[in-house]
Predict the structure.
Amino acid sequence: MAVPWLAGRGGPRRLALGGASMLGQLVLVTVAALALIWALVTADFSLQYVANNSSLRTPLYYRVTGLWAALEGSLLLWEWMLVAFAGLAVWQQRARHRELMPWLMAVFSGVSAFFLGVLAFASPPFERLWPVPLDGRGLNPLLEDVDMFTHPPMLYAGFVALTVPYAFAMAALITGRLDEGWIATTRRWTIGGWLFLTLGNIFGGWWSYHVLGWGGFWAWDPVENASFLPWLPATAFLHSVQIQERRGMLKVWNVSLIIVTFALTIFGTFLTRSGVLSSVHAFSSGPVGGLFLGFLALVLLGSFALVALRADRLRSQPEIDSMVSRESTFLLNNVVLAAVTFTIVLGTIFPLVAEAVTGVKLSVGAPYFSRVTVPLFVALLFLMGVGPLIAWRKASADNLRRNFLWPAVLSVVVAVALAVLGVRDLWPLLALTLSAFVLLTMIHDTARAVAARRAIAGEGVLAALGSLLRRNQRRYGGFVVHLGIVLMVLGITGSMNFSQEHSATVASGETVGLGRFTLRFEGLRRMQRPTHERVEADFRVFNDAQELGVLSPALKFFPARQSPVGRAVLRMSLKEDLYLILSGFSEIKSGQATVKVMVRPMVNWVWIGGGVLVLGTLLVIWPFRRAAREA
């Protein structure tokens, strides 16, 4: 930590020395990570980590993922990403923000020193094992899935990328250089971290849906909450920072959001690696949790002490001119996101605090989170439709009428149509109606802009859309992001409120029906796989007498586990998913199986919406203008 700071105090040569020290650290950590991967690939069971997370039966590609399958390796991956991202950020901004560089490198090095200390003393990945076993335990069976290559690395990348705006904020506070320069510099890093977190959570939902075998994609598990929590203040920051860029307001609030976002990445790490939680996602190891909790306290106390120290320079002069304005809408958006964050934090830590005080184990489940957060998310939907189109400073009656009259009228028509079709429950009706409102506002605004562009430049529709996107990436890329969220809301609302399920025990040749589907049981099969034995139940699927194929849910039996692991199967479509879970079976010869059948409407729109959201984010940060200038 001291070397980069001292190096930066004495001019360009010493600043280069600080950069060289960070490069050297990157090389050493890279060598350590590659050494652990090599040990996993070659099944070097003399390392305790390899013996615990690999085996001779483990396929090669899953041996590689063993790097992040448990505590020690995941922290090493985290440290490698940290020094890589830190080095890239310093190299990119070494000329533009030279005055911040010493402190920027010091903050990066301080965070890195903490992780290196944990790896060296509390959770070493290269601890030796004696006597050397002939074989290892292998991966947790739930981790033997292709999403092991995407979900954890994406989350780690999101957590680590958000260290960059935090380090810039701390450097700006320490030096007193609190203009909008550091905000503009870190905007893409914040969006990048937000994008990685988004991908990590989407892949995690898909993993939960098709691997864990319960038919859902989000259970408000504490570790799921830990990955979602930093996403919320990061989202708030990306909205409120626009007010600071345009009006010079909310400086304290924006710095505080960056601090809270980074602190929640550490809090999430504490939850998943302290052993205080019982979860399929969580790791557990001795003193690591206490170290992360102490580091979290240091981050919060030190960061907000700097905010207090620089309070005079952070005071914003302008004030909100009207409650009917884009500033007030974005601010209200931030308040709702803060309320969602507080609600989830409270529900996540309350059982831990209650157990520490009373000694009694309590649980806060999905009903609490759904009951409290659904109204807040519905409010966010409304603000998502209003915020991008309402005028800055003060919206006139003409602005409101021009932008919102027809979308509002058509949304009322949608609400009436939904009620006629049988959607009568309040929250689903509101969610679907407001989703229509958001979609209609975007279509209305874009259609007007395309018409104007065609009238002025004589462009075709597609050319006009391309011109609008290049000229205002933030606005129209943001529209695509909002479209993705709307599609996800449709999928979440449909699957949560209109699903069907039925369990039955059937013998060979018997059928079970649900909705428009009929399934005929055709028998059991026992199969051998490299790491386990599997029993599959074959069901031939019919839809209104039309054959759709065979689905084969299974139970997998691993040598190191006493109970089997389920393998759910599903038939996917845009309208609905047919989802089968094998709950149990009798002897293979007698051929009797217990199956749970689910019909999940519209759930695939969650994944489609996630893809659209990612596309919109890429459109926001893609260097269209730079490419146009170079051309």
Remarks:
- The longest helix spans residues 326-358.
